[in-house]
């Protein structure tokens, strides 16, 4: 088949096993019936771009309406340049796949470049740098743990994974946090750790056992006094009729409710079981059903107290999210008190370690771990195993990658409102 003249610019091939280099991640950034891809200029002086209109016909991709004969097209990275896909700019390269009658766009990018678009989307970059650096380390760990050469892509770009905003989200302060923690990840037992996090623990972190029935030693229930909503509870009032409608969606049809109480709570004070009483009897909601019922009523977390009267149910609670692992607001509070990024991680993942992420070996696909230190030891020493730059390198950072800010400038940066917080994919 004769291909359009422009097509050779795209090095297309049927999808083969991608590079297993640990520094590369593949993120699903768009999925639709057709996609428009622009190659952005590689220098500030250039204004030319090339637009590619990609669709699907007969299970094969089309380019500008012409058949390519392939299910997969690949556009390699353009050094110093970016790509625009569905109106958003990204670094790195692109893989386009025909999936059914639609097109998937997968950004293939170095993990450190990927984090530049993730960290400021998950935590305000003007927060204390220790907290932002901790977020960079756990975001890197989360991404690296999901690299799977056998899958078509490793991550999505939404709250189902980690929010990835591409170039538009990048910020000099979060760039600096990513660079200063380069290659650092949290590990346990020689493997990448499960670095779950939530917006706010509500004053007491939840264990993985109480949340999901998985006993992970470094995900413990423990007091977290730096999380602010422990002192500032939220209150939600839901009309009795609404409560009964929501209960019916969870299989509870008892007529008019006369009582609703927490019959079992976890160590961290989160609801594990609810007892509902109505005209037709009583019923218990437990586990995920109890949590889902509360979230459907607007609860920000399951760390909540209930009070039912003849007209409404009042929910008084603290925290936001599941509460397992790092609490972002708690990390902010600890960082403001002078704690380092490694001290934050040691607090929220006690017993875990910090390791250097290295390239995969041919006989061991997927990310590999290099030098490792217990987080407790690294926090005491004030640095992790990856921070081995010479004094000259530390005093002269790359100005293009880690902009310097004077103490005066940092002191006068005001914190913005809290950005939307996302949760890991498998919560």
UniProtKB/TrEMBL annotation:
Domain (Sporulation stage II protein D amidase enhancer LytB N-terminal) spans 101-186
| Signal peptide boundaries | 1-22
Which key words are in the record? Signal
GO-annotated biological processes: sporulation resulting in formation of a cellular spore
Q: Which GO terms describe its cellular component?
A: outer membrane-bounded periplasmic space
Domain of life according to the entry: Bacteria
Family annotation (NCBIfam families): SpoIID_LytB (TIGR02669)
- Tell me the protein's name: SpoIID/LytB domain-containing protein
């Amino acid at each position: 088949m004769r291909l359009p003249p422009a097509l050779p610019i795209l090095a297309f091939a049927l999808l083969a096993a991608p590079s297993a280099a640990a520094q590369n991640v593949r993120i699903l950034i768009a999925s639709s019936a057709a996609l428009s891809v622009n190659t952005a200029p590689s220098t500030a002086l250039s204004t030319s771009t090339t637009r590619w209109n990609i669709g699907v016909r007969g299970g094969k991709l089309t380019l500008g309406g012409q058949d390519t004969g392939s299910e997969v097209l690949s556009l390699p990275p353009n050094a110093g340049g970016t790509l625009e896909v569905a109106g958003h700019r990204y670094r790195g390269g692109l893989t386009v796949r025909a999936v059914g009658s639609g097109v998937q766009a997968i950004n293939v990018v170095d993990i450190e470049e990927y984090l530049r678009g993730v960290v400021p989307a998950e935590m305000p970059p003007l927060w204390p740098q220790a907290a932002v650096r901790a977020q960079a380390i756990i975001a890197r760990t989360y991404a690296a743990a999901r690299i799977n050469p056998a899958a078509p892509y490793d991550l999505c770009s939404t709250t189902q994974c980690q929010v990835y905003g591409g170039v538009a989200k990048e910020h000099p302060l979060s760039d600096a946090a990513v660079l200063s923690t380069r290659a650092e990840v949290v590990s346990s037992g020689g493997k990448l750790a499960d670095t779950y996090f939530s917006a706010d623990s509500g004053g007491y972190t939840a264990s993985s056992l109480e949340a999901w029935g998985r006993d992970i030693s470094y995900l413990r229930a423990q007091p977290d006094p730096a999380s602010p909503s422990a002192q500032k509870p939220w209150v939600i009032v839901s009309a009795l009729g609404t409560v009964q409608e929501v209960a019916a969606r969870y299989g509870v049809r008892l007529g008019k409710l006369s009582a609703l109480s927490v019959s079992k709570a976890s160590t961290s004070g989160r609801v594990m079981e609810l007892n509902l009483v109505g005209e037709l009897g009583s019923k218990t909601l437990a586990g995920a059903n109890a949590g889902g019922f509360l979230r459907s009523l607007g609860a920000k977390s399951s760390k909540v107290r209930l009070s039912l009267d003849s007209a409404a149910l009042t929910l008084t609670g603290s925290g936001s999210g599941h509460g397992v692992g790092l609490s972002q607001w708690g990390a902010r509070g600890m960082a403001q008190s002078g704690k380092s990024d490694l001290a934050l991680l040691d607090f929220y993942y006690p017993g875990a370690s910090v390791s250097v992420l290295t390239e995969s070996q041919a006989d061991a696909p997927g990310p590999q771990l290099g030098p490792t230190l217990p987080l407790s030891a690294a926090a005491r020493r004030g640095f992790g195993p990856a921070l081995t730059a010479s004094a000259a390198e530390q005093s002269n950072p790359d100005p293009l990658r880690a902009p310097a800010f004077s103490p005066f400038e940092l002191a006068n940066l005001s914190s913005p409102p809290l950005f939307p917080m996302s949760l890991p994919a498998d919560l």
